[in-house]
Specification:
Blueprint (H helix, E strand, L loop, with lengths): L9 E4 L3 H12 L4 E4 L7 H5 L9 H4 L2 H8 L14 H13 L8 E2 L3 E7 L15 E7 L2 E7 L1 E4 L27 E3 L9 H4 L3 E5 L3 H14 L6 E5 L18 H15 L4 E3 L4 E7 L2 E6 L2 E2 L5 E4 L28 H4 L14 H4 L6 E3 L13 H19 L24
Parallel strand pairs: 1-2, 1-7, 2-3, 7-16, 8-15, 9-10, 9-15, 10-11
Antiparallel strand pairs: 4-5, 5-6, 12-13, 13-14
The structure holds flavin-adenine dinucleotide.
Length: 420
C-alpha cells in the first residue's frame, strides 16, 4: 500500500511541558500531532518532582505560543516574575494546556512508545527510505499497535533513566540489590516520603541543585525529628564553591538555594564527604555500607542519588541517529553543551540543524536533547520546538521564508556549574 506521507500525523513521544509545546506549535503550523504519554497523566515526570521550587520564573517556564492559546480561553497568566514549584507549573499551566480543546483530542495517555522504525525498512535498507513513513510501536492496556506518521519528535525526557551511584558509570557492585534503600532524583522528603527519612542517617550523593534541594529538606526534617544525620557525598575535593550564581542572577531562586546550603554547611548541619567514587554497596546489620575509592563511608539507612540522568536511546535504535559520544545528545549539539568544555552561559544558539539526525524527519527535543549534560532549561526547549516545527513547516511549504528561530541557553552567567 502507498501513502501520501504528508497527510499522516506527526508523532510526539512524551506529554511533558516540551511534548505539549510541540503539539501546540504543530497545530499552530497546520500539522496534526499524535502525542503518546506513558504515564496516566500528562507531565508525569514533572509530577514526581512537583514539590521542588523551580529556579526559573514563570516567564521562562511557559511556551509563548501556548500562552496565547490559553489566553484566548480566559486563562489568567501567573505573575511572571514569581518562581513556581513543579506542582504549580503543572496545575496552572500544563494541565490547562493539556485539557484545552485544541490539544486534548491529540493526547493518548497510558500509551508507551516502545520502538520507532521506518515502514518496511530496517536500519540497513536504503532504497526508498527517505519517503517511507515512520512506524511507531505503542503499547497500552489494549495491547500493541503500529501507527504510521510522517515525522517523529522525541520529547520523552530523562527522569526515568537516572545515572547510577557507581563510580564507573555502571551500577556499583550491590547497587541493584540495595535498590529498596536508594531513591534516584529528588524525593518529597517533607511530604510523601517523610517516614522513610525521619530519624534516619541519610546520605545524599551529587553536586548539583537537586542534591541541594534534598539536603535542604533533610536538614529541615532533622530539626523536627530526633536522631537524624544528614551526610553529603560529592565527587569533587571541596565544598568551597557552593554559591556559584552571580548576585544579579536572573534565576534568583537558584542563588537563594546555594546561599542556604552554604549557611547549613557553616552551621555544621551537614557532614560532607569529598572525593566520592562508590565501588560497592552492601547491607550489614540492616545498614548500608558504601565502599568508596578511599575507604568506607559511615553506615547509612537511606541514600538519595542526585547524580543526574541519561537518555534512553533504545526506542529509536532502529533509526539512523548520530549522537555525540560523550554527552549522548545529537552530534552537532553535543560539543556546544559538553560540561567538560562549556559552562551553560557559553552555549551558542542552536536549532533544528543541530537537533536533526541522518534519519530525515526525526528530532529529539527537550531535556532528552541534552543527553547527559545537566544544563537544560525549559526556555531553551521552547525555542528548540519553535525551530524544529518551523523546519518541518518549511519542508512542506517550500516558499516559506527561512526562520531565524534558534534556541539559546545564554540565560546563565558564564563560568558556572549550573546543573539541576
Ligand atoms: C528536580 C528538577 C528541577 C528542575 N528545575 C528546573 C527549573 O527550575 N527550570 C527549568 O527550566 N528546568 C528545570 N528542570 C529541567 C527540565 O526543564 C525539566 O526536567 C522538564 O520537565 C523537562 O521537560 P521535558 O518535557 O523535556 O521532559 P519531561 O518533563 O521529563 O517529560 C517527558 C514525558 O515523556 C513521557 N515518556 C517517557 N518515555 C516515554 C515513552 N517511551 N513513551 C511515551 N511517553 C514517554 C514521560 O512520562 C514524561 O511525561 C528541572 C529538572 C528537575 C529534575
Amino acid at each position: 500500500m502507498t501513502y501520501n506521507v504528508e497527510n499522516l500525523p506527526i508523532a510526539v513521544i512524551g506529554a511533558g511541558p516540551i511534548g505539549l509545546s510541540v503539539a501546540v506549535n504543530l497545530i499552530d503550523r497546520g500539522f496534526t500531532p499524535i502525542v503518546f504519554e506513558a504515564g496516566d497523566c500528562v507531565a508525569s515526570n514533572l509530577k514526581k518532582w512537583g514539590h521542588v521550587r523551580m529556579f526559573s520564573p514563570w516567564s521562562y517556564n511557559m511556551d509563548p505560543v501556548a500562552v496565547s492559546l490559553l489566553k484566548k480561553k480566559g486563562w489568567i497568566e501567573p505573575v511572571l516574575t514569581e518562581f513556581p514549584t513543579g506542582n504549580e507549573l503543572l496545575e496552572h499551566y500544563v494541565l490547562p494546556l493539556a485539557s484545552h480543546e485544541a490539544i486534548a483530542p491529540h493526547l493518548h495517555l497510558n500509551t508507551r512508545v516502545e520502538n520507532v522504525s521506518r515502514q518496511y525498512h530496517d536500519i540497513l535498507r536504503n532504497e526508498g527510505r527517505k519517503n517511507a513513513p515512520f512506524i511507531v510501536r505503542t503499547s497500552n492496556s489494549e495491547g500493541q499497535s503500529d501507527i504510521l506518521v510522517q515525522a517523529v519528535i522525541d520529547a520523552s525526557g530523562t527522569y526515568q533513566t537516572p545515572n547510577w551511584l557507581g563510580a564507573h558509570g555502571i551500577p556499583a557492585l550491590g547497587e541493584l540489590a540495595a535498590s529498596q534503600s536508594i531513591i534516584y532524583g529528588v524525593p518529597d522528603i517533607l511530604g510523601l516520603t517523610r517516614k522513610q527519612y525521619a530519624g534516619r542517617t541519610v546520605l545524599v550523593i551529587g553536586g548539583g541543585h537537586s542534591a541541594f534541594n534534598a539536603l535542604q529538606d533533610l536538614v529541615k526534617l532533622s530539626e523536627q525529628s530526633d536522631g537524624m544525620r544528614v551526610l553529603w557525598g560529592i565527587r569533587g575535593s571541596s565544598v568551597n564553591n557552593i554559591v556559584r550564581s552571580p548576585e544579579n542572577d536572573e534565576l534568583q531562586e537558584r542563588r537563594r538555594l546555594e546561599m542556604h546550603i552554604q549557611k547549613l554547611l557553616d552551621e555544621g548541619k551537614i557532614e560532607v564527604f569529598t572525593n566520592i567514587a562508590i565501588e560497592s554497596i552492601n547491607y550489614e546489620n540492616g545498614k548500608l555500607i558504601l565502599q568508596n575509592r578511599s575507604g568506607q563511608l559511615p553506615p547509612v539507612d537511606q541514600i538519595i542519588a542526585a547524580t543526574g540522568f541519561r537518555p534512553d536511546l533504545g526506542l529509536i535504535s532502529e533509526l539512523r541517529t548520530s549522537f555525540d559520544p560523550a554527552t549522548q545528545s545529537p552530534a552537532a549539539l553535543g560539543p556546544l553543551i559538553d560540561p567538560n568544555i562549556h559552562t551553560c552561559g557559553s552555549v551558542p544558539e542552536h536549532g533544528s540543524d543541530e537537533l536533526s539526525h541522518p534519519e530525515n524527519g526525526l528530532y529529539i527535543v527537550g531535556i532528552k536533547s541534552y543527553g547527559r549534560a545537566p544544563t537544560f532549561l525549559l526556555k531553551t526547549g521552547y525555542k528548540q520546538v519553535k525551530s524544529v516545527t518551523s523546519a518541518l513547516a518549511r519542508k512542506t511549504e517550500s516558499d516559506a521564508p527561512p526562520t531565524a528561530d534558534r534556541a539559546t541557553c545564554g540565560l546563565l552567567a558564564a563560568n558556572q556549574n549550573c546543573s539541576q
